[in-house]
Amino acid sequence: MGVTEYDAIVVGSGPNGLAAAITLQQQGLRVLLIEGKEQVGGGMRTQELTLPGFQHDVCSAIHPLAASAPFFRSLPLEAYGLRLLHPEVLAAHPLADGSSVCLYRSLTDTAAQLGADEKKYLELMRPIVNNWDSLASDFLGPLKFPKKPLQLASFGRKALQPATWLARSFTSERTAALFAGMAAHGIQPLTNWATSAIALVLMGAGHVGGWPVVQGGSQGLADALLAYFLDKGGQFQAGWMVADLGELPAATAVLFDTSPRQLLKIAGKEFSRLYTWQLNRYRYGMGVFKVDFALDGPVPWTSATARMAGTVHLGGTLSEIAASEAGLWKGIYSENPYVLVAQQSLADPHRAPQGKHTLWAYCHVPSGGNTDITEVVIRQIEKQAPGFRKLILAIKSMNASDYESYNPNYVGGDINVGVQDIYQLFSRPALRFSPYRSSAKGIYLCSSATPPGGGVHGMCGFHAAKQVLHDLF
Predict the structure, then answer these.
(1) Which of 1, 108, 443, 447 has the largest count of CB atoms under 10 Å?
(2) pLDDT tops 70 at residue 146
(3) Which Pfam family name is an example for this entry (predicted)?
(4) Which CATH number fits domain 6-36+240-282+418-472: 3.40.50.720, 3.10.129.10, 3.40.50.1390, 3.50.50.60?
(5) What's the pTM value of the predicted model, to 2 decimals?
(6) Angle of helix 132-139 relative to helix 118-130, nearest 10 degrees?
(7) Residue 236 CB: number of other CB atoms within 10 A?
(8) Do strands 251-256 and 6-11 pair parallel, antiparallel, or not at all (unpaired)?
(9) How confident is the model at residue 340 (pLDDT cuts 50, 70, 90)?
(10) Which of 182, 176, 179, 177 is nearest to 94 (CA)?
């Protein structure tokens, strides 16, 4: 094969790039990790976006899978500075009557608040929680024969349903709203097949490991992963935005933590016509619009439980959330959007000066949208927290186009790096024997554009690295 400077090069240091680099380095290989920005992390970065002393997460904020995904759980990240902090209430979903329906760490506490749906919720979630380890290894990876096929088949019968179907099987509108708020994390219409999977995984992860925030900001997770990688002998270079495959040193394998579009730009001349055609047909989803707030105090939610929640889902009932997401999918902005709010400074007071708070809020928008809807987001919060506006000290907004400028892998502002629907659930980014292999020997994709898709879990990178080890070493 000739002399190579590295066994493997990983381009991109998001959670999946870091996971791939670590998995390869653990095998004693010579690994170089490259990051285009000056700061490691991709979607796990924390910056003073508003005022001095206010630490805001640029992209990922709450980490349901940081404490429950198999790869992160396998690493001694606490020894490298990682501290996960757990809010008292994982997620609150305020309703029109001023109350909230909530996700708690405890399965039974969550079920107990659901009245007539208590038994159904336990029947739905208990098998997922009790069999989490085996199920997670199957649904957080590529399509393969499952370790426990009967358990996975039971999960799949529910998970593959549209979220609207499963939500409407509950007796109470409150329970349906809770489920809708969970499923809407998927950034697609709730009528799409397999959207129930998103809700089931997020709720299961919450009951198993919580929905923690990272002390000091999401950057802390990236820093801990990088520190572990370097301690194992890996090499890291920041500030190198790779534009062409020819720039890279000689290596047996090159893995890209990028979108398929970026992969084509950098290495497309190496690919077959069929693979190039497949990547060009890859579908990207809706964008996001995010607002970061520096606040003079905590959010004055009408609901007492919302005041203790790390995450708050706004948008109302199942029908209202479903209507908003369906309209956005068609390019129509909503006046009553689903807004996902994160209150990291409740669990981590060091995110802001004493007595002050940070708030992170985003909603879905049409792909590539550059309309400023800051006021819409503020109004949604004000509905459930009268007086919120008076607490605002500073604001930083990012539209979908801003997100793509910040990270070119977020095509049109799509932070999931591709629609995660039934058609691209396991075939992302192309229908192949291995979703991680390109058509060119030694070139691999390890980003969220591969199974299991979006989220801070590192499993795309882990499985891509395992494929590399199987193929080449």
Answers:
(1) 447
(2) no
(3) NAD_binding_8
(4) 3.50.50.60
(5) 0.96
(6) 80
(7) 17
(8) parallel
(9) very high
(10) 177
